[in-house]
Amino acid sequence: MAETVPSHPPAPEEGHPHHEEMSFWSKYIFPLDHKMIGMQYLFTGIAMAMVGGFFAYTFRMQLAFPGIEVPGWGLVSPADYNALVTNHGAIMIFWVAMPVLIAAFGNFLIPLMIGCDDMVFPRINRLSYQIFFLSVLVLIASFLVEGGAFGGAWTAYPPLSAKAEYSLTPLGSSLWLLAVALEFVAFLLGGINFITTAMNSRAPGMKMYDIPIVVWMIVLASIMFMLSVGPLVAGAVMLFFDQQLGTGFFDPARGGDPVLWQHLFWFFGHPEVYVVLLPAMGIVAEIITVFARKKLFAYKTVLYTAFGTGILSFTVWAHHQFVAGIDPRMAHIFTITTLLISVPIAEMCFVYIATLYGGSIRLTTPMLWALAFIAEFLIGGVTGIFLGASGADIYFHDSYFVLAHFHYTFFPIAIIGFYAGITYWFPKMFGRMLDDRLGKIHFWGTIIPFNGIFLPLFILGLAGQHRRIYNYEHFPELATPELQALRVLATVSLLVMLGFQLVFLVNFVRSLRRGEKAPQNPWKANTLEWQAPSPPPHGNFATLPTVYRGPYEYSVPGRAEDYWPQNAPE
Amino acid sequence: MSSRPIATTRSATEIPTGKLAVWWLLGSEIVIFGGLLASYIMYRLAHDAWHAQAAATNTWIGAFNTLVLLTSSLTAVLAHQAAEEGNGPKAAKLLWATIGGAATFLIVKAFEWTMEIRHGYTITADTFWSFYYTAAGLHAAHVLAGAVVMVFVARSAARNQELHRVELAGIYWHFVDIVWIFLFPLLYIAK
Amino acid sequence: MSEHHHPNYVKIWAILVGLLVVSVLGPMLGIQIVTLITAFGIAVVKAYLVAKNFMHLNIEKRYIVYMLTTCLVFMFLFFAGTAPDVMEAEGSNWEKPSFELYDEAASHTVGHGTAHH
């Protein structure tokens, strides 16, 4: 509501105010257009993914070849190692998964898919990106200050994070916290914009059950983010005061309790998993229906399941704290709720498989990514069952089993989900087609090494390898040649996988400049974004569409075409 | 050059877009204050010793500030009524009265805190006082933000422009009032 | 917004001020249960009156009320899941010795001895 424009009577639904050619500055740097803001989030997210990937490369080299001069970094000191793993985690979740899956796709897709010309608050949308960009700068600054970057893990448990004499990063830890808090503010502003837009600005005729699943999922994710992040915002203020003013919110000697931070953090942190999962699930739903040429099996079930997941996800948070000294009676309750939440997620996977059944499947690059998402995420989900049971978790906790488990969930969400989405919507975003052959090389070159990285880590975890160890040579029972061979296998797989990402970058840049011109609707899809020109101009549609049917009417018997756009009157 | 997108003028829920966004904003504020106050209540119930600390807060100043905020809520809702009747200048005057209430609240608060800090009750004196300053400080930041927003709303309302914003600023202001209604017994009365 | 007849805002304000007076006077009786009821019971009533009449939640769409209530419910959920760990000084396999030491110390030194009266 920071708008200061004078009010005018509502514009007629057809026709747009004509925008004259804008300067570079107002078009690319301070845009109001939702698509351009989405691009800003997308490219910032990709740049941060490279940073996060580089960190992973550096500490994986140290783990496989302890004491090596890592090319591009040099000798990894213990403090370096801690800062690298901490910021790898934080960056991949807060500065890659969130901006790419929610902010980039949300900004680009929501107004297009619900058939309107922009977000309801373009200026707040722009402000959201600017705050997000500021948070990136603050995070980078935390590496440059005296004492170095924060190394107390992305969960930032006190007392390690609260006191400079433990963390040894008096400024780095506060800057890290500030960066995370700014990122939250950016996504709160963006989220309210998404929710309001989707609730109020749908095209005439688009009822609740005509909204594409991916829009539902991004909006649900925004609501969940908004509901879960509040206590952590308060907690971040408390932790910041502990760091900089010397209060004792989390210091038992002064009446505080460090376990309170864990609750504040995980009350946000667990719903956060579903905040990024749901948009990825939505992207997969869109792709699967289009390339199976079949109606989404049980639209309403998916929707109710997502609601159920959202609510249940607020009741499971303490399963991260089974060994933190929480009340064992509470651990029982959290075990039950944690095992329950696998039901709706499994149901969603079944629905997607049922959608595939009997369809005429086209194995395009986006479809391969979508299928890989289901397969790989299932491994992550199934291994989560072991960790959700409080008894088993006592053994697995803080081992590489946990690490492999959540990479089998987050990698499909953040990376596979992103590649599925970008290969599917690239023609719409940039008006050019991606090269399918390079896309498939990139797909196999990513998926095979991905399993090569994390399957060995399951075995290492079962063998008792603890997380957050800088050099296993100091632990004779973990420094055996067999276990070291598995570490080397994981690191080599990572190098191969990172190498194959170059294929994607080449494909991306080359297609951007010389790719085949994309038609308006290259995949013959129903949803509204494909009924706008590629790429859509400012204002999106020549005439704002009216919606006549749901988004998944594929292969309807009796029709000449096997698709039926939402806005086609007949 | 700048014109609102058509998206802003649509209203599938039949709630005006600005108002809908304010409700969601308040939802996100409820969980921020909720998390902080839930933490405070847990600690408070766990530490009998905090009675002794809380005894040092000044109930009369707290009660006076409650009265100020309740009254400013009244002027805010009367401003909304005036705006609905299309009387922009009257709404603006009532909004300025609300801003006056916000200023009074903050001045009293500054006076109160100065006195307490002089007596050694600083933010690090005890974790009770850490909560006292954090919760009231977060609330005071909202009071300040509300006052700044209302300055802009009042200026355009005086020219009979953007009258729907009077209601939006009012809803936010009543929420700030409600937060204080809970902070008052939590920090001042329970001793 | 359709025109509902406005409640008498000044009257509601007068009720709120009356409740405020009661909530300040209640604790002076020195009976704990009365203090709790007058302090927190009245706070809930005041918040209800403000939300209903000033924020006009009574004539707003129902799901706004549901949304705001959901936010509150999640906060109670957070409290319920967290309090068993944070409020106790000891549990079945753990204790917080410094927690009790703190209580011991804090009840004696109001303002940590730096107060000048």
Structural domain count of chain B: 1
CATH superfamily of chain B, called what? Cytochrome c oxidase, subunit III, four-helix bundle
Uncertain residue ranges of chain B:
none
The number of distinct helices of chain C, counting runs of at least 4 residues, comes to 4
N-C termini distance of chain C: 56 Å
What is the total tally of β strands of chain B?
Answer: 0
| Secondary-structure element order of chain B, N to C | HHHHHHH
Strand content of chain B: under 5%
Walk me through the structure.
The complex is a heterotrimer of chains A (570), B (191) and C (117). Chain A is built from 15 helices and 2 strands. Chain A has 570 residues and is mostly helical. Chain A has a domain at 30-79 and 92-108 and 200-507: Up-down Bundle (Cytochrome C Oxidase, Chain A), CATH 1.20.210. In chain A, strands 1-2 form a two-stranded antiparallel ribbon. In chain A, helix 3 (78-113) runs antiparallel to helix 7 (213-244) and helix 7 runs parallel beside helix 9. Chain A is globular, with a radius of gyration of 24 Å. With 191 residues, chain B is mostly helical. Chain B has one domain: Four Helix Bundle (Hemerythrin (Met), subunit A). Chain B has 7 helices and no strands. Chain C contains 4 helices and no strands. Chain C has helices spanning 9-25, 32-54, 62-86, 97-108. In chain C, helix 1 (9-25) runs antiparallel to helix 2 (32-54). Chain C folds into 2 domains: 1-60; 61-112, no CATH class. Chain C is mainly α. Chains B and C meet through helix 2, helix 3, helix 4 and helix 7 of B and helix 1, helix 2, helix 3 and helix 4 of C.
